[in-house]
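agent: user wants the full assembly modeled, not chains individually. Plan: 1) parse entity lines 2) check alphabet per entity 3) run joint structure prediction 4) return tokens. Steps 1-2 passed, two entities, 226 residues total. Proceeding.
--- entities ---
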Amino acid sequence: QKEVEQDPGPLSVPEGAIVSLNCTYSNSAFQYFMWYRQYSRKGPELLMYTYSSGNKEDGRFTAQVDKSSKYISLFIRDSQPSDSATYLCAIFSSNTGKLIFGQGTTLQVKP
Amino acid sequence: DGGITQSPKYLFRKEGQNVTLSCEQNLNHDAMYWYRQDPGQGLRLIYYSQIVNDFQKGDIAEGYSVSREKKESFPLTVTSAQKNPTAFYLCASSIPGAAGANVLTFGAGSRLTVL
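--- prediction returned ---
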């Protein structure tokens, strides 16, 4: 079993839709949760970073963490064609120093 | 602007050749990393360095070598011993975040194709 699982998609939605991207993880020692966005042929860039269970908002983006279920989500409201990219979850444990990336979900937002 | 510069962006190699990918950062970050990205497999850690003149193997170090002679530079050599080198290579750097998490800044990547 992989330590972090992420559905690779692809996920295709119409412009304006609410998008839900998800990851599950197996090790409860993971403490920090990140979402990166990667445009085609570019390096990933950090979107959201959170530590605790609950929600964190930044504009149209909301990161949600449920540590009891070992489940993290990224919601995108009012999705735009410019949101078309691959979204990678990343999970970190300061105890082990391990940073593990999910496989990435490819999102296409159609105008 | 501060950032990470990777070069070349595209590189073609014949089988049996060694190639070196450059990574330079002007963020004054202590830690630097090399990742390999293949379709459907996410990012896999090749090597990392937390200080100058020191580096550690990641999960898939076989067939690769690195050096860290300067804080700003962390070149990766893909040797002929790497059996399947065609991939997208990403360099990253970091300082510990507010709570100790490794928040990475990535370069734009180098795509290596073996002919």
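agent: reporting back. Chain A touches chain B at residues 4, 6, 8, 31-32, 34, 36, 41-46, 49, 51, 88, 90, 92, 94, 97, 99, 101-104 (CB under 8 Å). Residues 37 and 87 of chain A are 5 Å apart (CA to CA).
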